[in-house]
Design goal:
The structure holds two protein chains of two kinds.
Chain A: H1 3-11, H2 15-37, H3 40-56, H4 66-87, H5 116-135, H6 138-149, H7 154-161, H8 165-183, H9 192-199
Chain B: H1 7-17, H2 23-35, H3 37-54, H4 81-159, H5 164-174, H6 183-188, H7 192-195, H8 213-257
Helix pairs in contact in B: 1-3, 4-5, 4-8
The chains are: A mainly alpha, B mainly alpha.
Chain lengths: 200, 259
């Protein structure tokens, strides 16, 4: 069954069809939420809330990129939580996975071609990127994650943020500049291809 | 790291990387890139940053986010009756304020204006008494004037042509006698010199005329009462009705909610 049929059935109240869509998009949404929130537990909560909200508001989906529509919901959920935390700072507890074990760090999707060393570099790069993303203002962070991490184009990113394309261009440029400044501080941790510019 | 490149150029380079520039801007930027070393360097750094971000490891969802029926079940409606209870209480409070305002603001000036009316009635009676007295004096002065006038005409009669009475009357009317005021004039005349700056608390000095400010003050108060009273009555009625209806609705809804 293709995505259009699943969406149509889900709009009519078929929860199983919607759960098929959940399975297809949960990694993408979780990635967006984690990059926005910077921690596993908060990202899980935001992702779950986003799917519940998406199911309840399926009638408001007007076609177009379903991925961009879902990403908008999870991005807004993250904005709400970040603003709420600014008003009332919280100390997060250790998250629990499906088996009941504490999740201390995010689980990266392993690349089959990676050697152990490459896998370690990948983890370090991921953590370096996340550290620099955490330094960005929320509106810059969401745009650079949507475009450069999630791979959306400018129009999709505009739809996911509710901002015009011109604003997306401007925020993306400034976010990339700040990420460049931040990532250069990690030096040796980063791939040599990234560091090549400093040596030149 | 500081850069001498403007924010506008940074945006152009970023859009250029993503293929978002139109042909004209793209050609212009590429021409600059051939000549400006610093601009070229910034383009390379932005490109490496973008590549690194795109190569960022993807995260695996820590658990399944599939929905269960109880997660999306329709939530039980929250009770509404507290809203009506609050509305009833607010309407009662506002009603009390309006009634207080009605008593303090509108009725007190009414009492003051009643006092003013009474004072004016007393003044009017004083004027009437003065009128009763004054005509005697004027009659006397008029008679005196006529008597004086009549003496001359008497003398003139001996040698004057006929119709001495008409002369007498005309002269008597023409010769102003101090204090003599015609009945019509004393009703409407306002002695300007005397009324200027004369306070209303001394109506006796203005016995022959009503003070200028008192009628306008009374009419202003009457106007306020005329305009405000119906509005206040309507407000009181509406608030009372609102309080009663809200309280009744709250009671009915609460009974229904509690089953």
């Amino acid at each position: 069954m293709d995505e259009v049929e699943l969406i149509a059935k889900a709009i009519n109240g078929d929860l199983d069809s919607f759960n098929c869509l959940v399975q297809d998009y949960q990694d993408i949404l979780y990635n967006q939420a984690y990059r926005m929130m910077g921690e596993v537990d908060a990202a899980s909560d935001a992702t779950q809330e986003a799917f519940i909200s998406a199911y309840r508001n399926l009638k408001s989906y007007r076609g177009g990129s379903f991925k961009a529509w879902l990403l908008r919901i999870v991005t807004n959920a993250c904005y709400d939580e970040l603003r709420r935390r600014k008003r009332r700072p919280v100390v997060p507890l250790e998250p629990i996975d499906d088996s009941g074990e504490e999740v201390e760090s995010p689980e990266w999707i392993a690349d089959p071609g990676d050697s152990p060393e490459d896998a370690m570099v990948r983890v370090q790069v991921g953590e370096a990127i996340q550290h620099c993303l955490d330094e960005l203002p929320e509106e810059f962070r969401s745009v650079v994650v949507l475009v450069d991490v999630q791979g959306l184009d400018y129009a999709e990113a505009a739809g996911s943020t509710g901002k015009p394309v011109g604003t997306i261009k401007s925020r993306l440029a400034r976010a990339r500049l700040r990420m460049r400044d931040c990532l250069q501080g990690f030096g040796e941790l980063l791939p040599s291809s990234f560091r090549q510019g400093d040596e030149g | 790291m500081k850069t001498n490149i403007s924010r506008r150029d940074i945006e152009l380079l970023s859009a250029y990387l993503d293929g978002q520039l139109d042909a004209r801007r793209k050609a212009k930027l590429e021409s600059r890139l051939q000549n400006e070393t610093e601009l070229n360097k910034m383009l390379e750094e932005l490109s490496r940053t973008r590549t690194l971000l795109r190569s960022a490891p993807k995260l695996k969802a820590p658990r399944s986010f599939k929905l269960k029926p109880e997660m999306v079940a329709k939530r039980q409606a929250r009770p509404v009756y507290p809203v009506f209870q609050f509305a009833s209480a607010m309407a009662m409070i506002l009603l009390v304020f309006v009634l207080l305002g009605d008593y303090l603001v509108l009725r007190q000036p009414m009492a003051a204006s009643e006092e003013t009316s009474m004072a004016m009635q007393a003044q009017d009676s004083a004027v009437e008494e003065a009128l009763k007295e004054a005509p005697d004096e004027r009659t006397m002065s008029r008679e005196a004037g006529e008597a004086d006038a009549s003496e001359q005409p008497n003398l003139a009669m001996e040698a004057a042509p006929p119709a001495p009475e008409a002369t007498m009357t005309a002269e008597a009317e023409e010769i102003p006698t101090f204090g003599a005021v015609t009945p019509e004039a004393e009703m409407y005349a306002v002695p300007q010199e005397e009324s200027a700056g004369t306070p209303a608390e001394e109506p006796t000095e203005l016995a022959f005329g009503e003070p200028e400010n008192l009628p306008s003050a009374r009419s202003e108060v009457q106007e306020i009462r005329r305009v405000s009273l119906p509005a206040v009555r309507i407000a009181e009625f509406v608030l009372a009705l609102t309080a009663l209806a809200s309280a009744l609705t709250a009671v009915l809804l609460k009974r229904r909610f509690n089953g």
